[in-house]
Design brief:
The protein is mainly beta. It has one helix at 190-195; strands spanning 35-42, 47-50, 58-64, 69-73, 86-89, 96-104, 107-110, 114-117, 124-130, 133-139, 144-152, 157-165, 170-177, 183-188, 203-209, 213-216, 228-232. The chain is built from 1 helix and 17 strands. The strands form 6 sheets. Strands 1-11-6-3-4 form a 5-stranded mixed beta sheet, with no helix packed on it. Strands 12-13-16 form a 3-stranded antiparallel beta sheet, with no helix packed on it. Strands 15-14-17 form a 3-stranded antiparallel beta sheet.
């Protein structure tokens, strides 16, 4: 199996037309028996998954949709003998499809959805807790249970045009989005953008805007070296 990247080699110069260099590679397919948990979060939204309530020493590992091994946890806290597992995504995940495997200790993991029991792996009743609820079942020794879930992409507002008419002093902005609206156009200066909560600009210039929309910069911002605008829902 080749890692992502490049393979380099040299053919014999005396037979450039007949020599063939063969490379072998494999493409891992996702586990077909995965239980679908649905959409667990929006992109970049914090959430966690754990096995608290399971009756044996668990492990959790997570892979992306291409099979790359992204995360692993064996024990929440060895000091308190908490042998259950937890994956805590404090900054959330990118939008996409993910795969999660629950197994008993000890297993090993790797890219390509690789999971392998190291022998004598524990089994028993499990509970998988996630943002939408909990799943339960029973694992035999050396078995694994696969799950799949989605992280949803948030709808976005894409600005497609911005024009300025020096005769009227008006800006005209256009945008595209799947959001239903209505929309608000806000403006502010660089300090506003840095200091306001969630980077929301303070001056609301058009409260119920439709694309395209024209507006004038408020008098309080006249003369600013930089003026920023936002289209929000």
């Amino acid at each position: 199996v080749l890692d992502p990247g490049q393979e380099r080699g040299t053919t014999e110069s005396s037979h450039p037309a007949v020599e063939i260099q063969f490379l072998q590679f494999s493409i891992a397919s996702p586990p077909l028996d995965s239980l679908d948990l649905g959409i667990l979060a929006n992109e970049n939204q914090p959430f966690f998954i754990d096995t608290i309530g399971s009756g044996f020493d668990t492990q959790l590992a997570m892979f992306d949709g291409a099979g790359f091994w992204l995360a692993f946890n064996d024990d929440i806290d060895l000091d308190t003998n908490n042998l259950q597992s937890e994956l805590d995504f404090e900054e959330g995940l990118s939008a996409g499809t993910y795969f999660l495997v629950l197994a008993g200790w000890p297993h090993e993991y790797g890219d390509g959805f690789f999971v392998n029991s190291l022998g004598g792996a524990e089994g028993g009743g499990y509970e998988l807790n996630h943002p939408l609820g909990a799943e339960d079942g029973v694992l035999n020794s050396n078995e694994q249970q696969w799950f799949t879930f989605e992280v949803a992409a948030l709808p976005r507002i894409e600005v497609t045009g911005l024009d300025f008419d020096p005769d009227t002093g008006r800006f005209t902005v256009a945008w595209e989005t799947s959001l239903p609206g209505p929309f608000t156009i806000r403006v502010g200066n660089a300090l506003d953008l840095q200091t306001n909560p969630d980077n929301i600009l303070p001056f609301e210039v058009v409260p119920e805007a439709t694309s395209p929309q024209s507006f004038v910069v408020p008098a309080a911002l006249q003369g600013e070296p930089e003026v920023f605008f936002q289209v929000t829902d």
